[in-house]
Amino acid sequence: MQLPKEFLEEMKQILGEEYGAFLESYEHSGFRGLRVNTAKSKAEEFERISPFSLEPVPWTSNGFYLEADAAASKHPFYAAGLYYLQEPSAMTPAACLPVQEGDRVLDLCAAPGGKATELASRLHGTGLLVANDISNSRAKGLLKNLELFGAGNILVTSETPGRLASYFEGFFDKILIDAPCSGEGMFRKEPAMVKDWMEHGPKHYSEIQKEIVEEAAKMLRPGGMILYSTCTFSPRENEAAIAHFLELPGDFQVIPLPKQEGFAEGRPDLLQADEAKDLSDEQREQLQHCARIYPHRIKGEGHFVALLKKGTAEEPRLKAKAAGKGNKTVFCEEWEAFSKLLGISIEKESLRLYDKKLYSLPRDLWNHSIRGLRFLRTGLYLGDVEKKRFEPSQALAMNLKKEDCRAYVDFPADDGRVLRYLKGETLDVEDLLGEDAAPGWRLVCVEGFPLGWGKLVNGSLRNKYYAGWRW
Questions:
Q1: Which among 35, 5, 436, 9 is positioned nearest to 198, based on CA atoms?
Q2: Spatial CB neighbours of 238, under 8 Å, sequence gap ≥ 6
Q3: What are phi and psi of 284, to 5 degrees?
Q4: Which of 88, 181, 242, 400 might form a disulfide with 300, Cβ 3.0–4.6 angstroms?
Q5: Is 297 exposed, middle or buried, given 0-12, 13-18 or 19+ CB atoms closer than 10 A?
Q6: CB of 161 within 8 A of CB of 200?
Q7: Alpha helix (H) residue ranges in 248-305
Q8: Cα(323)–Cα(287) distance, integer angstroms
Q9: What domains lie within the chain, and their CATH numbers?
Q10: Which residues are catalytic?
Q11: Three-class DSSP category at 422
């Protein structure tokens, strides 16, 4: 691989005696990873049923190295949302943000969803996850991954950080910023990024990162935490961004991360004089609490991670935007009839109907207006209300557990009908019905994990798997 001379010179300065080992790491092709969706399966339970050979990733409890030739994206468990395919080092940021149930969480640069899906699974259906990406096309892929994982307590937006800040000042308990960067840490995995680096290097991205940092700081409540990460080595994009955080209003402090073998500490000594001129000696020392991840030290690509906590002093915040007239609870007769099929109850106060589509909004959005924001999804999309009938959504199926539905069809993973279902075919399922052969909706599962919906008619299962997801 031909690496830019300027990049190599900087890495020689950063790494010193380790520079040779760093260069040798580029002779390796990199590592594949799989992260278990703990909202659907515990990591140890997935290890037991996994069709793949797995090795634990040390820095996260639900991450595994995946063998190079494993066709993990073509297994039915992938369609059931049991795992996300993710480069092992990229699992670090979400693992280091201490999300708790009930938190209001923002993933500010969320597409394609590797980190957002982990944050959602750790909320376990509580609180609120706002997942944003400024690119509308990328946000569509983000939404699919969140719904595949079964996330329902979500707001998926496609906005600038500044626009979000005007709606959510002082709103969030936790924020993740996986900032756009020059991508130096991904050169081995994605050589095409070298060309982008030569066109838009660290200086270009550092200005973007400062703007993102400033807006994110406004959206964090006093006492809240921000996790800042990049996949680059440049101190201009890493320690300098954290130094900028420390200069902002809010009395930010860098919080030490759990010690992890192979991770290196932050390097305040690499900052240019103008990047740290206003920092105190204590703040310079805090920069050492950041973590640098190098491919020659661990089995993964290059990353940078820093956890910051905002001071607890109260600050003036924008008055919450009151919900508008269109954001009121609705009674839906068609949903009431369909929901008798479910063994769970969804709060009636959460229901909202827009253009014949029924949603269940997270409680934190009941009285908070998002009118004017560009969003792709608010809450759990339950389904479509037609004339005297209800068509349940793919998102609802993925949000359920098998035991949440009174009528289901459950296939073994090696049953050929599973793949035929995922391709959209009608299936003969009489052998799986037992005494329950009544016509109507069925939750279709594989090994007890939902895949989608089907409608039973005379022993045949009419396929209702979402057309946009078919294999």
A1: 5
A2: 230, 232, 266, 290, 292, 304, 306
A3: -60, -40
A4: 88
A5: middle
A6: no
A7: 281-286
A8: 41
A9: 400-471 (2.30.130.60)
A10: 231
A11: helix
Distance CA 159, CA 377 (A): 13
Q: Mean pLDDT across the stretch 103-125?
A: 98
- Work out the number of other CB atoms within 10 angstroms of the CB of residue 48: 8
CA distances from 175 to 73, 186, 306, 309 (A): 29, 23, 12, 10
Round to whole Å and give the CA distance between 245 and 252: 7
Residue type, 424: G
Degrees, nearest 5: CA angle 393-394-400: 95
Map tokens 């790494």 to a residue: 15
* Joined tokens for residue 133: 């990406």
63: left (phi over 0), alpha (psi -120 to 50) or beta: beta
Q: Tokens in use for 219?
A: 């959206």
> How far from chain centre, in Å, is Cα 310?
23
- CB-based burial, 209-241: b 16+ in 10 Å, e otherwise: bbebbbbbbbbbbeebbbbbbbbbbbbbbbbbb
Q: CA-to-CA distance for 238 and 304, rounded, in angstroms?
A: 7
Between strands 389-392 and 380-386, the pairing is antiparallel
pTM for the full predicted model: 0.95
Burial track 434-450 (b if 16+ CB lie within 10 A, e otherwise): eeeeeeebbbbbbbebb
Where are the strands (E) in 197-284, listed by range?
A: 220-230, 253-255, 264-265
Identity at 241, one-letter amino acid code: A
- pLDDT tens column, 14-51: 999 999 999 999 999 899 999 999 999 999 999 999 99
Contact 43, 82 (CB under 8 A): no
Give which of 280, 209, 281 is closest to 241, Cα–Cα: 209
User: Helix (H, G, I), strand (E, B), or coil: what is residue 328?
Assistant: coil
**Contacts of 125 by beta carbon, 8 Å cutoff, 6+ apart:** 39, 152, 153
